[in-house]
Structure formats: structure tokens, C-alpha cells
């Protein structure tokens, strides 16, 4: 016997709101959800796994229209994966680019923290703050050339 979850349990399991679950079904991100004799939705383990993947796509910045396009491809062409693969490869490239940007931002934040630690250790003022960009570029270059 398979375990079926209520909409409240599915929301808790996926981190999505009840409203979002209903919306996802309405726009076609989910196949029609099985309904119990009382008309209440019952989510299968397969439904939850699919929702968890959709959450990953959304949390990595895939626009809802592209997620819907992906879901349509899955449903309409279950044996054809090349279009889905291409869509996911494009998304992966965007995620990688975003990660590179975030990594760079993190490096800048770390350098600023190191700068402040150095100021605290030496008792200096941050009067050179206007020269921060020059200091940053020099620090990044030296770290990259190591």
C-alpha cells in the first residue's frame, strides 16, 4: 500500500504553501492529483518527488514559464529526453554563472573583513576607504596569481 499525503502534509513535506500546491496543479506543473472519495487531494510519493525537483528548479532561479515548459515536455513526450536535457543544460549554465558571481562577491566580502581585521590589529583608521577599489583589485590579483 502506498502512502498518500493530504495537501497539508504535502505542503509540509515540500516546503510549499497549500496555495502554491493548488497553483502548481492549476497551471499544469503537476498532473491532476488523485482525490479521495471525499474530494480531498492525496499526494503520492511520486508527486512529492516531482514537487521536490520543481522546488530545486525554482530555488535555482528557473522562471515559472520555463518550469512549466519543462513539465509540459515531461508529460507530452515522456520517452523523448533531448529537449528536457537541453533546457536543463541551459539552466545549469545560468546557475553556474550565478555561482561564479556569488563566489566573486564572497571574495570581496572576505577581503573587506580581512581589511577591517587588519585595521583593528594595527589601530589604523579607515581613512583609505576611498581607495578601497584599488586595494580590492590589488588583493584579488595577488590571490589569483598565487
UniProtKB/TrEMBL annotation:
SMART domains named in the record: HTH_MERR (SM00422)
Gene3D superfamilies assigned: 1.10.1660.10
Alphabetized CDD domains for the sequence: HTH_YyaN
Short name of any one Pfam family annotated for the protein: MerR_1
Coiled coil, from the record: none
SUPFAM superfamilies named in the record: Putative DNA-binding domain (SSF46955)
Keywords: DNA-binding
Name the record gives this protein: MerR family transcriptional regulator
